[in-house]
Amino acid sequence: MAVDYPFTNVVGFTCYTISQAAFLFSSTIKSQYAYRHPTAPVSTVRVNDFAFGFHGMVLCIVVYSQFFPAIWGFDVGKHQTASSVSRGIVWGSFVSVIVTIIIVTTKSHDGGYDPSGWAWIEVVSIYSYPRRVANGHPNEPENESGRYRCRGTLQVTPALSI
Fold first, then answer.
1. Rounded to an integer, what distance in angstroms lies between the CA atom of residue 83 and that of residue 147?
2. Tens of pLDDT along 86-101?
3. Based on the structure, what is the number of domains in the chain?
4. Taking each helix axis from N to C terminus, what angle separates 4-25 and 47-65, rounded to the nearest 10 degrees?
5. Across the chain, what does the average pLDDT equal?
6. Contact 67, 80 (CB under 8 A)
7. What percent of the chain has a predicted confidence (pLDDT) above 70?
8. What is the pLDDT of residues 53-65, one digit of tens each?
9. Nearest to residue 121, comparing CAs of 29, 46, 47?
10. What is the pLDDT of residue 134?
């Protein structure tokens, strides 16, 4: 089993769950959303969105935990680790959230509560991106060495070319 998919999806679904929880339960995020969307002031996030994220997060944690022999007792190869691309995605996710928090706290005149400028809703929005990136990365084509490479989508076989 490849470790990249569960590794990136633990982070992706955790971030997604945090984002959905903020839209459901945070009065600050709800008010900032209403301010920025006056024609539709109620977020479209529902409890089932949060449940989906939480369920996905728990399942990804269970799958990823199978790579730790001390927990399950499974044999795991010595070289079965996350690729540098996956580690980069995870670190990039953390850095993007931290940078956004720094921008919100330094650029906002009231600590991020005024929705007309940099606000906490920016941080919540950034939390939704790692899941999208995590789900797209494992679908990239790999070459024989396991390294990711870019490949065009249009390929014509010699039998079909006229």
1. 8
2. 899 889 989 999 999 9
3. 1
4. 150
5. 82
6. yes
7. 81
8. 999 999 999 999 9
9. 29
10. 66
**Phi, psi of 148, deg, nearest 5:** -80, 145
Tokens of 20: 């959905």
For residue 89, give the nearest of 130, 132, 127, 124 by alpha carbon.
130
- Domain range enclosing 100: 4-137
Place of tokens 């906490």: 120
The Cα–Cα gap between 158 and 52 comes to 45
In this prediction the pTM is 0.76
Sign of the Cα torsion 123, 127, 132, 138 reads positive
> Nearest to residue 23, comparing CAs of 59, 58, 49?
49
DSSP 59-82: HHHHHHHTT-HHHH-----TT---
The Cα 79–Cα 67 span in angstroms is 11
146 falls within a domain: no
Q: Are 72 and 65 in contact (CB under 8 A)?
A: yes
Q: What is the CA radius of gyration of the chain?
A: 20
In a domain, 124, yes or no: yes
Q: Which residues contact 112 (CB under 8 A, 6 or more apart)?
A: 104, 105, 118, 119, 120, 123
